[in-house]
Amino acid sequence: MSRVVVVGAGFGGLSVAARLAARGHRVEVFEQGPQVGGKLGWFSRDGFSFDTGPSLLTLPAVQRDLFLKTGAPVEEVLDLVPLDPVAHYRFGDGTELDLPGGGLPAVAAALDEALGAGTGAQWTAFQRRAAQIWDVAREPFLESALDGSRTLVRLARDTSALRTVAPWASLRGLGRTYLQDPRLRTLLDRYATYSGSDPARAPAALATVPFVEQAFGAWYVRGGLHRLARAVADRAVDNGARIHTDAPVAAVLQSGTRAGGVRLADGTEVAADVVVSAVDAARLYRDLLPRPRLQPQRRLRSSSGFVLLLALDGRTPGLRHHTVLFPPDYDAEFADLAAGRPVADPTVYVSAPDDPALRPGDDCEAWFVLVNAPVHDPGRGTDWQDAGLVARYTRTVLDTMARRGLDVRHRLRWSEVRTPADLERLTGSDGGAIYGTASNGARSAFLRPANRSPVPGLFLVGGSAHPGGGLPLVGLSARIVADLVGEA
Questions:
Q1: Which three-class secondary structure state does DSSP give residue 311?
Q2: Which of 40, 337, 428, 459 has an alpha carbon within 20 to 30 A of 12's alpha carbon?
Q3: Phi, psi of 431, deg, nearest 5
Q4: In this structure, how many other beta carbons lie within 10 angstroms of the beta carbon of residue 250?
Q5: Separation CA 161–CA 53 (nearest Å)
Q6: Where are the CATH 3.50.50.60 domain residues in the chain?
Q7: Within a 10 A sphere around the Cβ of 79, how many other Cβ atoms?
Q8: How many Cα atoms sit within 13 Å of 292 on the Cβ side?
Q9: Beta 269-271 vs 348-351: how paired, if at all?
Q10: CA-CA-CA-CA dihedral for 427, 279, 385, 371, to nearest 10
Q11: d(CA 219, CA 433)
Q12: Hey, what CATH topology would domain 3-41+62-72+224-296+449-487 get?
C-alpha cells in the first residue's frame, strides 16, 4: 500500500482520505486552518450557530456510497432530514412559490397552483430532457476521470447522445425551448449559480442540477451540515488516517519526475508515494508547484458570495428552511457579476433551518444570508477588504430584503459579515471563488483542472477540479481520485 499525503481537509480531502485509508493506504492529511471542513464551515456566538457553506445535501447516494465503503451507513452516523418544501421563492412580480421536495409530479402541481395552469407541464417537459442529459452524461462526465479530448470524441461519435446533451446550447437557451413562462426561466437561471456561472453562457448540461435536486430530493443534516465534514473526518481517522490541523503546506516535493511528498510551512518534509491536493487548483499550480510549464491556462473564476450571519430576536411566521428573493431584473445581476462589481439589486438567499441546535432559545432565529458577489480582485475588480464598501453593501442587502418583504432590521441582535476576501483567507480559494472555475461555455467541463495532474503521483480533488463544485460533485471527485490512486 502507498504512503499518501492529502493537502487540505475540506470535504474533498476528507472524503478521499477516508476512502484511501479504508483501502489500507497510509494517509496523512495536512490542513492549514485550526479545524477541518473547508467551505463546510461553522460559526458560533452567544448560542447562535451557522453553517457558513452549503445548506442542503443533494444526490445523497454519493454520501451513502462513501460511508458504506468506509464503515457503517451514513444513517447510523448522521440524522438526514428530507426538506419539504425545499425552498420558498418570491419573484420580482410578487408571485410566491413553495417548491416541494416530494418529487417531480409534486413540483409540477405546485407550479400550476402558484404560477398558473400549464406551467407544471412546461417544467415537466424540461425535466424530461434534463433526465435524458443525466442518463447520457452521468458516467462519462461526472463519475469518471476525463480522458482529454478522447472523451469528447467518444461522445461526438454517438450522434443521439450528442443531440441530447446539446453541447452547443446554453442552459438559458435550452430553457427557452421548453419554458414559456418568464418566472420558470428565472427559476432555471438560478441553478447556474449553483456552480457560480452565468446561465446565458453555462452549458445546457447544467439542466441536470435541478433534475437531481427535484428527482432525488434535498436533505438537511440535523445540527448543521458541518457535521457531515466532521463525520467524514472521524471515518478517515477510524480507518487509520492521521489529520493534522494548523499545518499549512508550503510546497509539493518531487522525487525525480514524480511527486515525492510535501514541505510544511515550518520546514518539515513529509515523504509520500502519492500526493492528493484538495486545495484550490489555481493555488496548487501557482504556489505549491511553481513550475510555469505545468500551470494551466487561466480560466474564468466562478462567482463568490457576500454573506451575512444574522442573530435575530423573535420568530418569523411561516418561515421556510430556504427563502429566495428574486429582483425584477435578474439579467442585471449577471451583468454586474461579469463586470466584477457588487450587484446593485441582488437576489437574496436566506437559509434559516428550524433547528434548536442553531439558536439559544425558541424566541430567536439564526439566519445565513447570501448574495452572489464578484471575487476579491483589488487590482482589476472589487476590493472586499475596503471596510467602507463592506458597511455600505451590508446596508444594501438588508434594505433589499426589507423591500421584498423580509425586514429584519429592527430585530437584529448582531451580525457577522463574510466577504469573498474572507473566504479566500479562510479556505485558500482563488479570490474567494466558491466553485473554482466557472462552468461557462460548451467546453467548460474539459477546461476544469483534471484529477490526474501532469506530475506523476500528484492528483487533484475538490470543487476546483473535475467534475466540479458542490457536495455531490466533490464527493464524486474523491471517488474518482481514490480509484486513480489505486491504478497508479
A1: strand
A2: 337
A3: 70, 10
A4: 15
A5: 35
A6: 3-41+62-72+224-296+449-487
A7: 12
A8: 0
A9: unpaired
A10: -70
A11: 25
A12: FAD/NAD(P)-binding domain (3.50.50)
Cell of 209: 442540477
Evaluate the omega torsion of the peptide bond into residue 85 and state whether it is cis, within 30 degrees of 0.
yes
pTM: 0.93
Backbone angles phi, psi at 420, to 5 degrees: -55, -35
Handedness of CA 25, 30, 34, 40 (dihedral sign): negative
Q: All 3 cell numbers of residue 22? A: 479504508
The residue type of 55 is S
Half-sphere exposure of 214 toward its Cβ, with a 13 Å CA cutoff?
A: 28
Q: How many CB atoms lie within 10 A of CB 169?
A: 17
Q: What gap in Å lies between CA 483 and CA 144, rounded to an integer?
A: 10
**Spatial distance between the Cα atoms of 22 and 236, rounded to a whole number of angstroms:** 8
Of the CA atoms within 13 Å of residue 121, those in its CB half-sphere come to: 3
Lay out the sheet containing 80-82: strands in order across.
57-58, 218-221, 80-82
Distance between CA 442 and CA 437 in Å, rounded?
Answer: 14
Taking the C-alpha atoms of residue 1 and residue 195, their distance in angstroms, rounded to an integer, is 36
Tell me how far CA of residue 42 lies from CA of 48, 149, 198, 224, 243, in angstroms: 11, 40, 28, 8, 19
The half-sphere exposure of 298 on its side-chain side, counting CA atoms within 13 A, is 3
Question: What does 221-290 look like in DSSP terms, one character per residue?
Answer: ETT-THHHHHHHHHHHHHTT-EEESS--EEEEEEETTEEEEEEETTS-EEE-SEEEE-S-HHHIIIIIS-
How far is Cα 8 from Cα 237, in angstroms, rounded to an integer? 15
